């Protein structure tokens, strides 16, 4: 806070002790002089030096330098001192209250000063100094470049164009802490060399940028082998500017799937550009069809642009556009073949199509709940295949997670929907059944053009099963029981609807979080709508779905 002192000078006289006649005459003259009223030059009321008076009449305060708060915002502070005579102490009160108003609103190095001035017509000038952030020091960062951190913190002051506000800066520091590349962040603020300047010292504790995760589950269709092993290698900060590279490989009895993603931030507001490559080779391994040598090979190239139009600690709204180019080949006994409803060319078994997806995302978080919504408008064109020409789909998703006081549990609701204007190729159909849609049924039990799935799940923590050496955090080892209800319905745009056209189930699951890197889950669902059995037996027919995640580093 800026402080100014006004000094008042007092003068006095002392009597002489000389007793000579001359002195007596002088004393008599002095006494006569002392008895005569002093006549001083009058002080002109319309022109007074402020530092030379103990009281002053204030008609109005004139504020200069205030940009964040208008005169109207500050008038309630100054108006009680206007239109009357005030003391030097009251003048200091006005200054301190103005400075305090800035301080409590987060402008910790802003305030008011009283310049010495000639008071004309009762007008008192108050200068407002709105403090700036003159310097930001970043330390202890190794992988992340200093420019990456600075560019995001500079948003708090719009590159120095706005006065420094500690509350705004704190929000940007918390946003930076949400970055997966940052483990923790600490900052302190100190005054600068000049009045109104400030220095921000930021210490960054980085998270490890590279990760290797292994997964094992039964989340694939039994026709290509239900048991799936995955390995994912990820580096979140290749060049120090927040760009990430992810490579993933998945293997089942009849599937080889590998993919690569590279994402680079284009702006400090987290606009990102992504490139994807995916290649999958599959063969049907069911005994009933094994001799037919049914194969499918798919190659996908994609590029996507995403921009968050609004982002705060509690909510975010983003939009994106994605371009895809996909080529699929299907064969039977070594020759190209088009399966029913696949959309492939009947002679070659090939499908070439392009997609443009325009997406919108919204998420809102609070201490007790998370609400998220996703919408995607998709326009596709089949360049080669049975359904040559354009098609249109809309995909909508909604999720709601609520923390309940009862048992310190969580309630999770999810809704997914797809609508199409025509018959779709197999890659764009809506899958219903399995671990992520309707548990208790096989993966991809039905694949219509249009569909809706929803589930309600209650996650109840019942105990903590800690493993010594692995479960170190307060929430590590949490074991939850999860009763649920799932529902799915599908229909086709031009062909006959699936029979049955809806399935639903109820069941219970168990989730165990050993620590942040190791977790396991298993769900059992009872199918409440009978469907025709197909293929040989699999535990999915008994409604069992499981997954194990292990993060090696």
From TrEMBL:
Keywords: Cell outer membrane, Membrane, Protein transport, Transmembrane, Transmembrane beta strand, Transport
Gene Ontology BP, a term: protein secretion by the type V secretion system
Keyword Calcium assigned: no
Domain POTRA residue range list: 56-131
Molecular-function GO terms, alphabetical: protein transmembrane transporter activity
Recorded family membership: Belongs to the TPS (TC 1.B.20) family.
Annotated localization: Cell outer membrane
Pfam families the record matches: POTRA_2, ShlB
InterPro entries with a match to the protein in the record: Hemolysn_activator_HlyB_C, Polypept-transport_assoc_ShlB, POTRA, TPS_OM_transporter
Record PANTHER family: OUTER MEMBRANE TRANSPORTER CDIB, SLR1661 PROTEIN
Name assigned to this protein: Hemolysin activator HlyB C-terminal domain-containing
A Gene Ontology cellular-component term: cell outer membrane
């Amino acid at each position: 806070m800026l402080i100014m002192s006004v000094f008042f000078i007092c003068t006095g006289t002392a009597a002489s002790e000389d007793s000579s006649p001359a002195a007596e005459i002088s004393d008599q003259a002095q006494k006569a002089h002392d008895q005569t009223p002093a006549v001083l030059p009058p002080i002109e009321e319309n022109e007074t030096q402020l530092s030379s008076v103990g009281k002053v009449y204030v008609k109005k305060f004139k504020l200069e330098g205030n940009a964040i708060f208008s005169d109207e915002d500050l008038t309630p502070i100054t108006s009680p001192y206007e239109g009357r005579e005030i003391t030097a102490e009251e003048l200091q009160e006005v200054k301190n209250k103005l400075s305090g108003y800035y301080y409590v609103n987060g402008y910790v190095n802003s305030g008011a000063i009283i310049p010495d001035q000639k008071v004309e017509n009762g007008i008192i000038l108050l200068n407002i100094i709105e403090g700036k952030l003159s310097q930001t020091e970043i330390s202890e960062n190794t992988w992340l470049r200093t420019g990456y951190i600075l560019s995001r913190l500079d948003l708090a002051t719009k590159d120095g164009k706005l006065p420094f506000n500690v509350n705004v800066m704190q929000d940007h520091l918390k946003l930076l802490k949400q970055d997966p590349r940052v483990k923790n962040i600490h900052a302190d603020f100190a005054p600068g060399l000049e009045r109104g300047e400030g220095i921000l010292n930021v210490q960054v504790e980085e998270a490890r940028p590279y990760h290797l995760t292994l997964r094992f589950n039964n989340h694939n269709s039994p026709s290509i082998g239900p048991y799936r092993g995955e390995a994912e290698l990820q580096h979140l900060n290749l060049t120090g500017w927040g760009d990430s590279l992810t490579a993933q490989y998945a293997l089942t009895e009849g599937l080889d799937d590998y993919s690569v993603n590279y994402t680079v931030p284009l702006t400090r507001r987290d606009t990102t550009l992504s490139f994807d490559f995916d290649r999958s080779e599959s063969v049907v391994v069911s005994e009933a069809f094994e001799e037919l040598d049914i194969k499918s090979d798919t190659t996908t190239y994609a590029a996507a642009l995403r921009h968050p139009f609004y982002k705060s600690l509690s909510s975010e709204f983003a939009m994106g556009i994605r371009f895809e180019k996909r080529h699929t080949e299907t064969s039977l006994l070594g020759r190209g073949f088009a399966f029913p409803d696949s959309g492939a060319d009947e002679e070659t078994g090939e499908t070439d199509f392009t997609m443009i997806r325009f997406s919108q995302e919204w998420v809102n978080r609070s201490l007790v709940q998370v609400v998220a919504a996703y919408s995607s408008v998709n326009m596709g064109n089949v360049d080669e295949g049975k359904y040559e020409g354009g098609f249109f789909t809309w995909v909508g998703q909604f999720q709601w997670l609520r923390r309940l006081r009862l048992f310190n549990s969580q309630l999770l609701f999810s809704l997914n929907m797809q609508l199409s204007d025509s018959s779709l190729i197999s890659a764009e159909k809506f899958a219903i059944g399995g671990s992520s849609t309707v548990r208790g049924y096989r993966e991809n039990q039905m694949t219509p053009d249009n569909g809706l799935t929803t589930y309600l799940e209650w996650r109840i923590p019942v105990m903590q099963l800690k493993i010594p050496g692995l479960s170190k955090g307060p929430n590590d080892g949490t074991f939850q029981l999860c009763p649920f209800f799932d529902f799915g319905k599908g229909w086709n745009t031009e062909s006959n609807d699936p029979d049955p056209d809806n399935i639903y189930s109820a069941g219970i699951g168990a989730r165990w979080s050993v620590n942040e890197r190791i977790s396991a889950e298993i769900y059992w669902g009872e199918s409440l709508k009978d469907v025709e059995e197909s293929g040989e037996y699999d535990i999915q027919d008994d409604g069992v779905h499981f997954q194990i995640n292990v993060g090696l580093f």
